[in-house]
Amino acid sequence: MSETHGRGREETQEERADRQWTELLQELRVAQTGVQILFGFLLAVVFQSRFEDLAHVDRDIYVVTVMLGAATAATLIGPVSYHRLLTGRRMKPQTVIWASRMTVLGLVLLFCTMCSTLLLIMRVALHNQVALWLVGGMALWFLACWFLFPLWAIAKGRSGPREDEVDDGADATGASGRP
């Protein structure tokens, strides 16, 4: 039986999960590619001859940046593992929810990685406080593009629950079968 929940799209919970999973995979392909390229470049920096010339604080920023890059890559690749390990267990809706949460966490980590990378590059390039102002300005721009603009669109659009927040498994008391 199809369900609409007032959204104009007739699909079962499983069909909705399949569609959302496909959309999530497309988003992850974009993010994963950029993260993997950035992480590869970060790994190569330590092997450059000028690395030895970095100030102690810049080396610390580098180490933090590499660790953030690794955490970002792991988090944005994680949904693939979720899918592979849970395939065939009739858990697609839950898989989509957890993979979506992991993707948002990955975007937050990517934000931190990008800011840390920019800080290292600007400190090495400029050797002054302008680096902090440039990174701060770019951090605000990332926040606006990745989080504020979408939140603004939600505030301006119709308000209602997200598709994955509609509880199709609620019993007569309103209790959900989901954790």
Question: How is the secondary structure organized here?
Answer:
Elements: H1 13-45, H2 56-86, H3 92-126, H4 130-156
Helix pairs in contact: 1-2, 1-3, 2-3, 3-4
Question: Which residues sit in consecutive blocks of at least 5 with pLDDT less than 50?
Answer: 168-179
For the sheet with most strands, the description reads: none
Count of helical stretches: 4
Helix percent band: over 70%
Write down the overall geometry: flat
Fraction in beta strands: under 5%
Order of helices and strands: HHHH
Structural class by SSE content: mainly alpha
- Multimeric status of the protein: single chain
Concise structural overview:
With 179 residues, the protein is mainly α. It has helices at residues 13-45, 56-86, 92-126, 130-156. The chain contains four helices and no strands.
